[in-house]
Amino acid sequence: MPRTATWGTCGGICLLFLATSVVIVAGVNRGSNPSQVLQVLNKTSSLELVSAVPSQQGATVTVKNVSKTRAITGIAFATGREGQVLADLLSGSGDLTIRPGNTYSQTFAGTQPPDISILAAVLDDRTVDGDSRIGQRLLNLRKGKKDQLQLILPILRNALDSKTDVTVAQVIAEINKIPDPEHVDYYIQSGAFAMRESILLHLQDNSQRRGTPSGDPRHVLTFAYEEYSRFLAKL
User: Fold this and answer.
1) Same domain for 106 and 17?
2) Closest alpha carbon to 203 in 230, 170, 233, 235
């Protein structure tokens, strides 16, 4: 079964990016005009295009990891209309990492079928296949996430180790005191902001489940600490 993900317009970090390379033309019709096909440019050797299916709402591209030994942990796509989409497949749980021989589907929604580029793949040894400059952007996103986790996890750990009861609201207030990253690469900064927002949303959503075990402050903080510690270990 393929792993799947969906992006709306500018669903990821988007930049206007133009590239030239060999174009693979998928033999599928676009709309009602049989002379139009969805073009997919692939600049990687570890990913093989399986299918490219256009629709009036967008397009779905399915790729296969043809590397013999390396899993793929991130892919950089680009479309003519939406710009650049960096798909990081790592998480604290439920990774979409593509093992050798497995497939992954990415849906670009909210536009007419666009021409799509597969610019780079990040492998599980942190090397980049394809456009190294674009792949480095994805690695910089992860660096920003890692830097932020190294600041936030000690706050969660201190709250759990406290001899007095600490509320989730107090932990959120401490996290919000962390200075915003400055004078760093745009993608590092973006990764840091995304990581902080992810943790804050996680804490807020789970703390609102009052009257249930999952809404207990200690349970909320423990779950967050364990999940994001696993994520940090992967970065």
Assistant:
1) yes
2) 170
CA distance 188 to 146: 9
What are the tens digits of pLDDT across the range 30-89? 343 433 467 889 999 999 999 988 877 778 899 999 999 999 999 999 987 668 889 999
Task: Report the candidate in 75, 118, 68 with the shortest Cα–Cα distance to residue 97.
Answer: 75
Is residue 170 exposed (0-12), middle (13-18) or buried (19+ Cβ within 10 Å)? Answer: middle
- Tokens read off for 196: 């902080």
Whether residues 11 and 117 share a domain: the answer is yes
Distances (CA, A) of 183 to 21, 106, 188, 194: 34, 33, 10, 17
Pairing label, strands 3-7, 103-109? parallel
Note whether residue 83 is domain-resident: yes
DSSP 32: T
| Count of structural domains, the chain | 2
User: At how many degrees (to 10) do helices 186-207 and 217-234 cross?
Assistant: 150
Segments forming the whole domain that contains residue 177: 140-234
Residue 151, helix vs strand vs coil: helix
Per DSSP (E only), the strands in the chain are 3-7, 23-30, 33-42, 47-55, 58-65, 72-79, 83-88, 103-109, 116-123, 128-130
Domain endpoint, select from 108, 130, 152: 130
Six token digits for residue 5 = 């993900």
pTM of structure: 0.80
Q: Are 117 and 134 in contact (CB under 8 A)?
A: no
